[in-house]
Amino acid sequence: MQEQKTGYVKSEKHGMMMTIEFYHPQSNSLPSFLLYELANQIQEAGMDAEIRVIILKSWGEKAFCAGASFAELSTITNSIQGEEFFKGFAHVINSMRKCPKFIIARIQGKCVGGGLGIAAAADYAIAVTGADIKLSELEIGIGPFVVGPAVERKLGLSAFSQLTIDASSWRTAEWAKTRGLYSEVHASIQDLDDSLQRLVHHLIHSSVPAIREIKKMLWHDTSHWDQLLAERAKISGSLVITPMAQQAISLYNKA
């Protein structure tokens, strides 16, 4: 597929900071090859002894991430393929969870589905006004099974339930901030980047052993997520091949 030859994940090292950026022409959506590359680069940054903090961002000034690639979802013909696709999101979330460095997400635009899951898996998320969120999975006949634990951990069961059930409605960045997904919301991208640089400067001068232990503390009771997210990927994989899901995906893919 031509789509799988387009897009990138790239890492840039700036002293003790690593910036990991992903891009895809379809609103920074994520096909399998980008998901697995993103997970790999997060793991590598986590093992780099010189790195103190990781910035996770996407290209451009519009959508942060539109979630799963509908073009790839439309090619899935059996549950095994579906399971393997959704395992890509599991690998990204688990790589973020296990990374011993703080991961700061720079959210410059809307987050949908799996993109919201990635934002939730960050240790700290700085957003801009207009970075609205939506879990649209039920609209296409599946559910936010893989990203669910990360989203629920950040927003709580009530807010996660609202997003999951009312899958057609957007929630504002301020709504997301009041419920704990976003740590900060700024009026402009310039203000976002100024605050991001302030935080990075503070963190690169902080104790590495302390950060490592704080990270463990913040992610307590998640050691079972390797198995849990794999099981959730299997559920999504079985649902994505149902006639209702395939019809909805086809319509989204043509839009």
Question: How would you explain this protein's 3D organization?
Answer:
The chain is of the alpha/beta class. Helices cover 49% and strands 15% of the residues. The protein has 11 helices and 8 strands. It has helices at 32-47, 70-73, 79-98, 114-121, 148-155, 157-165, 173-178, 189-204, 208-218, 225-239, 243-254; strands spanning 8-14, 17-23, 53-58, 102-107, 111-112, 124-128, 133-134, 184-186. A hairpin with a 2-residue loop joins strand 1 (8-14) and strand 2. The chain is globular.
Any chance you could write out the topology, listing elements then pairs?
Elements: E1 8-14, E2 17-23, H1 32-47, E3 53-58, H2 70-73, H3 79-98, E4 102-107, E5 111-112, H4 114-121, E6 124-128, E7 133-134, H5 148-155, H6 157-165, H7 173-178, E8 184-186, H8 189-204, H9 208-218, H10 225-239, H11 243-254
Parallel strand pairs: 2-3, 3-4, 4-6, 5-7, 6-8
Antiparallel strand pairs: 1-2
Helix pairs in contact: 1-3, 3-4, 3-10, 4-5, 5-6
What is the gist of this entry?
With 255 residues, the chain is of the alpha/beta class. It is built from eleven helices and eight strands.
